[in-house]
Amino acid sequence: MLTALCLTFLVFVMTNLYPNLEKLAKSEGNFRMTDIEVATWLSNNGYRSPLDDQMLADFRAGDITLDEASAQVNTGFDPRLLRNYAEWIGIMPGWTGEDRDGNPTGRCILPGKDAAEAPTFCGILQGHWGFSTVSKAPVSEALGTRMGNTGFLMLCVMLLMVPSALIVGVLAGMREGSPLDRSLSTFSITTTATPEYVSGVLFIAIFTSSAVGLKWFKGTATSAMENATFENFFLPVLTIALYGMGYIARMTRASMAEVMTAQYIRTARLKGVSFPNIVMKHALRNALIAPFTVIMLQFPWLLNGVVIVETLFQYKGVGWELVRAAGNNDIEMLLAISVVSVVVVLVTQLISDIGYVYLNPRISVT
Amino acid sequence: MDPLTWTGGLATVLNPILFLLLPVFAVAMVVRIALSFFEPDTGIQTNPDGTIIATGGIWGLSAKLSNYLGLALLAVVLAYLVVGAALGTGAGIVGAVSRQFLPVWIALVATFVLSIHYKRSLGLYGKLFDSMIGMIGFGLVMFWVYTALFYGLFDWIATHGPLDQASGMKNKVPGTPLRGAEEGEFQWYLLGGDNLARDVFSRVVAGSTIVIAIAPLATLFAFMVGITLGLPAGYYGGRLDTILSFLANLILAFPVILLFYLLVTPEIVATGMPQFMAVVLFIFPLIFSGVLIHSRYRTQPSKDYVYLAIVLVPMALIYLATINQAGSKITFWPLDFFDVPGGILVVFVSVVFVNSPTVYRIVRGLTMDIKTRDYVAAAQTRGERPWYIMLWEILPNARGPLIVDFCLRIGYTTILLGTLGFFGLGLPPESPDWGSTINEGRKLLSIYLHPALPPALSLLSLVLGLNLLADGLREESLRD
Description:
The complex is a heterodimer of chains A (366) and B (480). Helices cover 66% and strands 3% of the residues of chain A. Chain A is built from 15 helices and 4 strands. In chain A, the strands form 2 sheets. Chain A has a two-stranded antiparallel ribbon with strand order 1-2. Chain A has a two-stranded antiparallel ribbon with strand order 3-4. In chain A, helix 13 (289-313) packs across helix 14 (318-328). Chain B has 480 residues and is an all-alpha fold. Chain B is 69% helix and 2% strand. Chain B has a two-stranded antiparallel sheet with strand order 1-2. Chain B has a two-stranded antiparallel ribbon with strand order 3-4. In chain B, a hairpin with a 5-residue loop joins strand 1 (45-46) and strand 2. In chain B, helix 8 packs across helix 14 (344-370), helix 15 (374-382) packs antiparallel against helix 16 and helix 17 runs parallel beside helix 18 (434-442). In chain B, 41% of the residues are buried. The mean pLDDT of chain B is 84. Chains A and B meet through helix 1, helix 2, helix 8, helix 9 and helix 13 of A and helix 1, helix 8, helix 9, helix 10 and helix 17 of B.
């Protein structure tokens, strides 16, 4: 909880640095705005404290030049930042003001809504996630569909990655040092050494390009958002799954190899239990404790891969949105995304702790 | 000038052998793996008279067969490289590339011969040459290290400048001759031209220098930060530990790419934020070496001051010159004898920043484990100071896992650098580093493969080499 607060505050500070705001103002207003116009726009839209009236009046009257006026604009720390953060959380009333035509504006007044009906408090505590400046829609709406897309992608990745990693690991750890173990270990170490942007590029080159001519799959996953088929969705899933797989497989192999040298396995062998039976009935459950924790802790890592793969395959999920929002300094979208990712990280840590207790009866919560 | 084919003059002799050997070897491996499911647990048996019997029957046969086939395959690949290096462009693209890498081959062979000859007296490094995996990894890593060195220092290996454009070479396939090449200039684009008609091969070679220069150094800095903070956190525990661990977890909970986007954009660079972070992060090596020396020689002040001066004065000079940059927020130091080129400082700082919390957690865990040992208790009873115990008792005993993690982490840093380049962050877009080149190449990937594949494969081989090296080191350090 505290982590999430600190983290979002950091993101808030970083996105509210003056150069970032200047960029935002210029992309929202127009690109030839003067420094004074930028500062005015920012204070009108609630990003910074109002400008000094005396200075503005002097500038309008022509007593000081543009350069002199620009030099007086506060580009450093602004106490307004703290208030804005409190507003975003929802423990301070949202700012209100007037735009040039005298219409009331404010944080809680959405475009096209009546100002009188707007609530006083609107932050994430009230379920109001803010307004995304890039997609021109409320963040919750814009991010919702993206999260659905990413969730589906992650689900497919998990479905592919976990079973295959466990199979590879168990097969390799069954007989340590056998040729099968060597080849599978080489395979898993290669996959951990291949970041998504390398394997993705390789897959696109081999399977989709007209230069090689295989053309088994499609190079983009844009169409997979409405209609995911094997042809357009397998490559992104495979790309993410491969990178995570090697690590899990190596963990599984290590713990399987350790279990296979244990006393009770030797006892079972001496009793004459067949080898497949030993593996399936005696070794497997104990060998799966360690990998389970690893799988859960892989989630934050997967998020990383998701960003790369979604950019590479043009799949419009959270990662794609993150890149777009960060490129355009879409403050509230970035905040929402960081909240989401922190929640994912914390929840997976919790699940891994609980699951560990469940799988290993020697540890009890009491 | 004719375009080069892939293997040139070697095609008639070696290609048929290669294409014959590859499927046979693959089949042999599959058969061997399939057979190993039914193998009896005999393995190598010892006779009472001291001789041994190898595994016999169909299993021994398949093992022998696949081993010999593997050796033959290796020999063919070596033949490509050796004959290629001798013939140069006569042996096609492979030959010409191999000829360009000639200094690297020589240096590699020299390193291996010397190291294997003296391996008994070289400690952990020597033991590396007992494991096949470690040797392969070391070879791959050293290949890129030598390439980076020879290119960075002597400008060898590359055939053209990384930014040179030649007319009519846009997106040309590998082996295309240069139109209107002048005397003394290399006549071909060995791996083709990219979207802006630059030589892909030379850019890959030039990119290796950037990666090899940044990745290990950044990892080293991350280790300095992690060790300097992790040791006291693990040793003292308590509130210090709580605060530091909270901060580390905070950074770790950040999605790395969001962090990069927040740190590396030009707007943030304009605020001088990376420079302030550099001020904080780069002081840790100074603190580390200062405390290291002082805790050891505290009782002999004459030696203490001499050593401290020898180490700290040059380091402080370099530190001040690094953080000080004309035309930015920090310009107070007159003796600014070098400038870190644009973008590299930012990339360096953000990579160190992302890596150090993980190192911190590892060091903290190791310290908490080791501080319960008897020799630490003995040192405490002797009345040694806490920092002496941390740096001269605990740290040397934690070196095994730390060295292994150092290798792995260089690989991870390489991946992070590539990620930065892939998103076009930090380094300038024309920079030849591998991430940026992959990013540039992927846009036309469905039509032209050759600009994106060489940097991708180079990055893959370097990281793979580092992982294998770490594996070999772990195996060998666990053995004693």
